[in-house]
Amino acid sequence: MNDQCKKMSKIFFLFFCIFLIHTVNTESHQYVDIEDYPYHVSIQIFGRHICSGAFIHESWIMTAASCVFSAELSRVSVRVRSSYICAICGDSLEISNIVIHEDFNKCVYFNDIALIKLKNPAEFGEKLLPIGLPEKENEIEDGTRCVVTGWKPELKPARIQRLAAAAVAIINQRTCKERMPSYKPLSKEMLCAVNTTHPSERCQGDLGAPLVSEQTLIGILSYGLGCETGTHPGVYTRISSYLSWIFVNSGIY
């Protein structure tokens, strides 16, 4: 990693820590059940949650490249069919391949997208279903209502992580840049969203968290906090910009 990238990464880490400090609020979030968001999965290394992903096909999961670009294949698994993250919650699925976008830039998070292939096709049911992909690349209007899901620790009876959701709205890149510290550039392949309904609500968003509008996966969390921190936006990889890449690498269209 060159010096400029190291410097930017340090600045990003500093602001990210500041974001985390402002997420201490433990009462204003919405816990949900996996049946309501059956596409949401936990990506794990040695059985420990590291980020989120979304089922898009019986054999494929989409997540952020920044989540898995340095992971060893044999150590990664996917936990599904549960509203909670624990060793006995839901089912753990083995994987056979990880496809990182060839132009992923870990310094500025451009092309932050990856595909994970399961060792065996998953059996779908009410707790595990794929989310649809956009039909074509199109503009997503400012103010478009979406939902983002992520994991939030419960305080009682123990700090077990539970699936949570927040309603967010798309904002244009100009507004996004005004609301974000100027430590990362934005590309046209990125989306920004904020929690405008309840700006004080915060929940633990994580890398790869799916951003969904009208039962269509329009983004995956690249950086920021998925359930948003007040007026600070989350930045997402725009799925519609990668439909050809997804097809070439998975056959899904």
From TrEMBL:
Transmembrane parts of this sequence: none
Transferase among keywords: no
Top-level taxon in the UniProt lineage: Eukaryota
Protein name: trypsin
Protease in keyword set: yes
Organism: Camponotus floridanus
PROSITE patterns hit by this protein: TRYPSIN_DOM (PS50240)
GO MF annotation, one: serine-type endopeptidase activity
Lineage, highest ranks first: Eukaryota, Metazoa, Ecdysozoa, Arthropoda, Hexapoda
EC number: 3.4.21.4
Cross-referenced InterPro entries: Peptidase_S1, Peptidase_S1_PA, Peptidase_S1_PA_chymotrypsin, Peptidase_S1A, Trypsin_dom
